[in-house]
Every structure is written in C-alpha cells, then in structure tokens.
Hints:
Layout: H1 3-18, H2 21-27, H3 48-51, H4 69-87, H5 92-113, H6 118-137, H7 145-165, H8 172-186, H9 190-213, H10 224-242
Amino acid sequence: MSPTLMILAAVYGVAAGVLLPRPVHRLSVEPDHDRRTDCPRGHPLTGPAHGWLGTARCRPCGAAYGPGTATTAAVTALVCAALAAATGPRPELAAWLLMAPVAVLLAAVDLRVRRLPDALTAALAALAAAGLGAAALLGGAAGSWRRAVLGGLLLGGCYLLLYVAHPNGIGLGDAKLAVGLGTALGWYGWHTLLVGAAAGIGLGALRGCWLLLAGRRREAMPLGPYLIAGALCGLLPAAAAAA
Length: 243
C-alpha cells in the first residue's frame, strides 16, 4: 500500500467527483425524454463541452441542482483511494480509476430516476475492455484480458436471461451494466466474478427485504447501485490478493 498513490488517487477522485452533479442532473430524465438542457428554473446550461462541464449551480438565478458536490466528490475520492490501496502501482489501476467516476455517475442517475442510460453503460464497458487491454500489454499486470472480456459477456448474458425471465425484477439497463462490471471482475478470475456478482445480488436482496418489512413493497428499487457496490466488494480483495 502506497500512501502517496492513495492520496493522488483521492485527489483525482475529488476532481472527477466535483464535475459529476451537472451530468447527473442532465441525464436524470425519464426514458422517453431527452437529456436536460436547462436548470430547474429553465435557464439554459452553458459552459465547456456543450454545457456538460461546470458547476451544478445556475449563474443567472443561482439555483443549485443535481446531487451535492461534496457528496459526489467524497464518494468518488473514497472509491479511487480504495482501488489504489488494493491494486498498488500495477497497470490495471489506470482502468479502475477511469471507470470509477462513470460508475458513481451511473449509480447517482439510477438512484434518481431508476434507469441506467445506455451511453453510460456502454462507456463503462468500453473503458473496462480498452483499459484492461492496454494494461495487459504492459508488464506487471495481474490479470487476464481474455478472461475479462469473457467475464463481461458471461455476466451480461446471465442478466439478460434474468431480464427475459422476469422483466419486472431485472431491468435491461442492469444487463448492460453487467457487461462492464463482469469485465472488471473477470480480470482477476472466475472466483472474483462469482463473488462480485453474488455480492451485488445480495445487497439488492437486502434492500428489497427492508422495503418489504417497511411496508414499501410497491416502491421501485434501483438495482444498479447495488450491483456496482457488489462488484467493488469483489474487486478490492481480489486486487489486494494479486499484490
């Protein structure tokens, strides 16, 4: 464990997390709606990258929107620091750090509107495949790129079958999310894939049980954040063991 590497990863996480509230606001729309282009009071969102980058506060009216900047920065920093502590200075850490802000963004959007945008699930899968592919070409990597790709296809296929069998329980977006998560988990082995997938389902089941006990059985539950948290539970010990 390198304290310097953890600090650098945390600083990166803060910088990335500060930029997340605006994309969360823009992407938190119903499936039949386009992305938001204005603040809650109707003022157009302007700034770099066609309004995607910038603070989550409207300049004309001062209205804040999206999740709290401190929350997204703290969560992203914590995830990045944990990944750096577990992985160490191995090439695959770059892939984890690229994926982390996208995963936090996906979880935040799913918590708000119960959906996982295709653009984000595709980006997560692409970052996993490309990032780990580059890591495999470098010396010192601790995983297998071929197994990672197979893991993504396997986990995504399993969730797709679950969606077909029970569409009210598993969303199609969850199956798309599973491709990126399975790719990351498969990098370290089939056992890691199994642990991460089981942890995600287990966390989601615990949340579902709590809703039942609280008399809120009809409340829609986003599964994405639990799948992401479960994948992290599988990834961190596997990365530490590989060290």
